[in-house]
Write a structure and sequence with these properties.
There is one protein chain. Helix content is 44%, strand content 18%. The chain is α/β, with parallel strands linked by helices. It has one domain: Rossmann fold (3-Layer(aba) Sandwich), CATH 3.40.50. The chain has a 5-stranded parallel β-sheet, sandwiched between helices. Helix 4 links the parallel strand 4 (71-74) and strand 5. The protein is globular.
């Protein structure tokens, strides 16, 4: 699975996802860290990537536009990187299952 981690989340999350066997990049890795949401959205479409984000705008966009990339919307408050990765370790299998099942928006709370 190809994943694009948005700027509000740490690059360590992209590295963790890569360690889980996925093709994950952070927006910093592809020179999109300061790009508008529309540019990140289009990059995800062109690269067939799932957007992993804390930005509600992507969640809204995914509901308004058919044919866009799937979005994993992380609704955690501010947490330390280690805690974020621990939480992802718990929920990631169900996220993969939902994405494989065709879900276009997955909300993690």
């Amino acid at each position: 699975m190809r994943l694009l981690v948005d700027a509000q989340l740490p690059p360590a999350l992209a590295r963790w996802l890569t360690a889980q066997g996925h093709d994950a990049q952070h927006v910093f890795d592809v020179a999109l860290s300061e790009s508008a949401d529309a540019v990140v959205w289009e990059h995800a479409i062109q690269s067939s990537a799932v957007i992993v984000t804390k930005d509600e705008d992507f969640a809204v966009r995914s509901q308004l536009h058919t044919g866009g990339p799937p979005v994993v919307w992380v609704r955690y408050g501010n947490v330390r990187r280690a805690e974020l990765l621990e939480r992802f370790a718990v929920v990631w299998p169900s996220i993969v299952e939902a994405l494989d099942g065709g879900e276009s928006l997955i909300e993690i709370v």
